[in-house]
Amino acid sequence: MIKELNTENLKEAIMSSTPVIVDFWASWCGPCKMLAPVFEELSEEYDGTLTFTKISTEDNPDAGSMYNVAGIPCLIVFKDGKEIDRIVGFAPKPLLKQKIDAVLEKV
Asked: What is the domain extent for residue 57?
């Protein structure tokens, strides 16, 4: 399950001791639309290991600038409020899974 975030609850959500991945996206973004079903599938596979969240940069423009998001989709992995890594752009499921696994090995 993916939790929808907004500017108000973003900082609280990333303060978790369990790693949190935040999908910065927008409805007009084609690659974001392609990533959505992949992100959903992965959220089920990593349940309990990684918390999946997303935040619309259209509805929450300050969120993107707070974390220096220059291009979307942008997936940022946080642990205890600190950025661990980021993945920018669309990636097919096998590649994205490989990248996420590499990030999780760091934490």
From this structure: 3-106
Quick check: is 32 catalytic?
yes
Choose, from 2, 13, 26, 29, the residue flagged as catalytic.
Answer: 29
Catalytic residue among 10, 20, 32, 50: 32
**50 within 8 A of 100, measured Cβ to Cβ:** yes
Residue 34 sits in a domain whose CATH number is: 3.40.30.10
Give SS3 for 86: strand
Report the predicted TM-score, pTM, of the whole model to 2 decimal places. Answer: 0.96
The total domain count for the chain is 1
Told to judge if 74 belongs to the known catalytic residues of this protein, a careful annotator would answer no
Query: What average pLDDT does this structure show over 38-57?
Result: 96
